[in-house]
Amino acid sequence: MLSPNALTHEHKRKLRWLVAVSSLPLLGVVTAFGIIPQSQLDPAGGKTVVEEIALPRIATQTQPTTFWRSETTRRGDTVAELLRRLNVEDESASDFLRNSPQAAAFRQLGPGVALQAETGEDGSLLALRFTTRNGTQTVIEKKDSGFKVTSLPAQLEQRIFMRTGVIESSLFAATDAAGLPEAAANQMADIFGGDIDFHRDLRKGDKFTVVYEVTYSNGEPVRAGRTLAAEFVNQGRSFRAVYFQPDNGRGGYYTPEGKSLRKSFLRSPLEFSRISSGFSSGRLHPVLNTIRAHKGVDYAAAIGTKVRVTGDGVVALAGVQRGYGNVVVINHAGGRSTVYGHLSRFAPGLRQGQRVLQGETIGFVGMTGLATGPHLHYEFKINGEHRDPLRVALPDAAPITAAQKAAFDAAAANLNARLSLVRNTNYSSLD
Prior knowledge:
Number of strands: 23
Helix content: 10-25%
Radius of gyration: 45 Å
Distance between the termini: 126 Å
Oligomer: single chain
Number of helices: 8
Shape: elongated
Strand content: 25-35%
Structural class: alpha+beta
């Protein structure tokens, strides 16, 4: 007979055998999943298939290559030279531009005009465009039937520019260095011409600032327009001017306080020239070799330089007179008169009794009469008595009226602010 412990041991052994036998089906299933051939999972059986697929054809278009080139006309340019710089090699275009009446505007272009040309790979001209002085844009295009010229109306706009500079040698050298257009430089000299003698009073270190308009047409600059404001510092003295045009009135230049800068007379009958001989009670006459009073001012200038009348008046004489040669005498209001001697010729149509306005051309510099070289002899008289033209006091025009004061102050404030901006920033230009 087995003991209780032996029975328990035997019971456990049978239980382990039963568990082991009952687990065999499960283990067989797991094993069966583990050894399934790969071929049964890969329907393609591991084979690589290469098949050529035809792609749809894409239509392509080749655009002809064209080139754009810009150039600026120069003094003395010919059609051939200009086309060469534009890389145009086209006999038909050259013939059209040289001979066709439709291309007359092209042949009349002066220096400094910007052009753009479109050419093909072979140098043929496809299009040419430029803007004339009056702002009209001209386009010349190549068509199947030849060249077609189209003129587009000017799209004008005004842009404001500001320039400042310092005098180192001469006014023109300084304005050129600052990029100020010649027209604006001339306006500045006229504006301050009653207070500053630009032939005698300029000093190294003098400064100027100018606010002016430039007219643009179709995005291209056409010409410098009106000067809106200016400042000139001469020998430490500052002169300012602003432009103001009242409603239904004549525009002019005034100080910031409203005093007119327009004088009844210009200081100089020539725009820019050096003084060769000043007013004197006694000098050695270069021709007669005697001591004689020189009751005027001599301005050395090239023969043909325009002579402008310094004030409104009436022609008292336009003819030949002793040592003066060809001379013009103008009578002005208030007992004043001016004399212009040694002229090469008179302005066309000038005659005695004709009324002339300040700045109008009355003759041209020469060396007629007793003269050793080309120059203008200029005299200023009051009630027949000679006065030094460089020093005589010149009356001002009327100031801003009380009725115009509010509108003037508003306009002057804006322009003065622009002048101060440039001066205080020390920039050579602000656009």
